[in-house]
Amino acid sequence: MSEGRYTELFFLDEATSFAAGHRPCAECRRARYNAFRDAWCLRKQGRPPFADEMDLELHRARIDRGRKVTYEAALSSLPDGAFVHVEGCAHLVWRDALLLWTPQGYARKYRPEDFVVTVLTPKPIVGCFRQGYVPEVHSSWHSL
What is the pTM of this model? Predict the structure, then answer.
């Protein structure tokens, strides 16, 4: 780890890192960071935020008293890229399906009816998805 700088975090894909409440790195993923910041700006209808400002809001939206913050929403209301908790497992909302997440990639595809789900991706990030930011998703979804 780079002391006093940032924490190196590695996830299956960008969608997974967003579910954990992290934004793209401003150094090593600058183009993705800029696109995310633009979507954040549209969501808030304000000036472009500094990374520290986004991090502060994201931290409050992902953890409260040491527990993961979740919320309920209709599946049909969620944009592509959001992660949800269904039947004890994490699933990615992607196109017209739910993709079962595993550490190695997406394992199964479901075509669900609309119902209320527990959303794992923090609200500010879901808001950025609604403003047009599309997260990068592991290639395993292509084979489902």
Answer: 0.92
Q: How far apart are CA 144 and CA 80, in angstroms?
A: 16
Strand-pair category, 97-102 with 89-94: antiparallel
Task: Please check whether residue 128 is in contact with residue 135, taking contact to mean a CB–CB distance below 8 angstroms.
Answer: no
Separation of alpha carbons 35 and 1, rounded Å: 26
Tokens, residue 36 = 């995310």
- Residues 101 and 91: beta-carbon distance below 8 Å: yes
Could you write out the DSSP letters of every residue in the chain?
-BTTTB-----SSHHHHHHTT-PPPTTTTHHHHHHHHHHHHHHHTSSPPPHHHHHHHHHHHHEETTEE--EEEEGGGPPTT-EEEETTEEEEEETTEEEEEETTEEEEEE-PPP-EEEE-S-HHHHHHHHTT------GGGGG-
CA distance 77 to 130: 10
| Extents of the domains making up the chain | 14-139
* pLDDT, block means (10 residues), the chain with 144 residues: 66 96 93 97 90 95 96 96 96 95 94 92 98 97 92
